[in-house]
Amino acid sequence: MGLVVQKYGGSSVADAEGIKRVAKRIVEAKKNGHQVVVVVSAMGDTTDELIDLAEQVSPMPSGREFDMLLTAGERISMALLAMAIKNLGHSAQSFTGSQAGVITDSVHNKARIIDVTPGRIRTALDEGNIAIVAGFQGVSQDKKDITTLGRGGSDTTAVALAAALEAEVCEIYTDVDGVFTADPRVVKKAKKIDWIAFEDMLELAASGSKVLLHRCVEYARRYNIPIHVRSSFSGLQGTWVSSAPPVRKTQQQGDQKVEQAIISGVAHDTSEAKVTVVGVPDKPGEAASIFRAIANAEINIDMIVQNVSAATTGLTDISFTLPKTEGRKAIDALEKAKGVIGFESLRYDDQIGKISLVGAGMKTNPGVTAGFFEALTDAGVNIELISTSEIRISVVTRADDVNEAVRAVHTAFGLDSDSDEAVVYGGTGR
User: Fold this and answer.
1) Torsion angle defined by CA atoms of residues 98, 100, 103 and 109, in that order, rounded to the nearest 10 degrees
2) Interval 166-213: pLDDT, tens
3) Torsion of CA 215, 269, 429, 136, to 10 degrees
4) Which are the contacts of 311, defined by CB distance < 8 A and separation ≥ 6?
5) Beta strand pairing call for 315-323 and 272-281
6) I need a surface site. Which of 207, 249, 374, 417 has the fewest CB within 10 A?
């Protein structure tokens, strides 16, 4: 049997009972003949509690010390899990991200993985151990400082280790039974997806689906690492995310490939805000100046819409969306560049939400776009921005309309399950 990388989220190891339950599942994989590497997140809400504590001590903690603090949560999880495994009669060794060879750039709080050199993990496995690795963290290549990968970084740690160790699969254990056609907390009749292609999962993740982090899926696609999203609270098969559909064995029809649906799902995101740059001169170079100022502030943007300029004034408005957490920084960066750009004013709106319809079959099925907008119309939802790709349609609406819009679109495209299939065991959907 080959090597398997398993990742357990915070809800799976939220308490002592959860840790012991996870330990039994890991030992079972070991007994089945696998070499097992496990990546763990911090217990429950530990990371949030550490962030709150830091804010009480210092309103603006330094990035280096903030990372040192936040990595404590995963170190607690990995040590306790190793203890639980040893209590079941199997040997286990725990490693921090730096000990596991996760090498990153020097950007604190949202570092990116540069390389993984898992020499110590290999040695531990060769000696018959189960290797437990603290997710979400690494060490910077130049300064050798401890870094963190940003929220959801444990998923990326797991896939990066799976790639470096040439694992058969990376199993992401969470508190839902897989990837669903919509957020189970919003749509109770959401269906579990048996298989989804990397491209569709990337679009869902980028559009707000919280089961898998976008960076994690991109890393898996780059190195062709199959991901199996499962619940640590049940023994059910989950969702496979891979480049090609898995083969399902049936007694009557023999081997059959799992088919991909026309529509993969509906995602939503209420973590973004909208910035509108009002009165921009409609001439070459203005948009470049706006987005260069945003880029220099190291801010990622999502949707962009430019209005047609008014004939009388020659001025136009440009709107774009970005994370709410970057809103203040974006406004400051644009105000500093106002003299160069020459716009009239800025508008900021953080009461918006994004709804996205994703599916590789959309481009070959006429009527999908019309059906999407008709569903929103029937639900009385007004659209503020529209963005499309070959396999996605996204719109921005009022934040208060998001849940109703998601349910309306989900029903309109026949995605509702006959029963309340979507169970959130841990209460978060991640």
Assistant:
1) -50
2) 999 999 998 889 999 999 889 989 999 999 999 999 999 989 888 898
3) 30
4) none
5) antiparallel
6) 249
Give the 3-state secondary structure of residue 148.
Answer: strand
pLDDT at 428: 46
The span from the CA of 264 to the CA of 421, in Å, is 16
Q: Decide: 273 and 352 in contact? Cβ < 8 Å.
A: yes
411 Cα distance to chain centroid:
25
CB crowding 19-55: b at 16 or more within 10 Å, else e: bbbbbebbbebbeeebbbbbbbbbbbebbeebeeebe
CA gap 270, 319 in Å, rounded: 17
Whole-number Å distance between alpha carbons of 417 and 419: 5
Give the integer Cα–Cα distance in Å for 60 and 45: 21
Residue 349: closest CA among 414, 417, 399, 420: 399
Nearest CA to 173 out of 365, 430, 416, 393 is that of: 430
How many angstroms separate the Cα of 235 from the Cα of each of 25, 302, 394, 413? 10, 37, 34, 30
**pLDDT given for residue 257 in this prediction:** 56
pLDDT in tens, 252-278: 555 555 555 688 999 999 999 999 999
With residue 239 as reference, give the H or E element that holds it.
strand 239-242
Other Cβ atoms closer than 10 A to 2: 11
- The total of other beta-carbon atoms located within 10 Å of residue 293's CB is 20
pTM value surpassing 0.70: yes
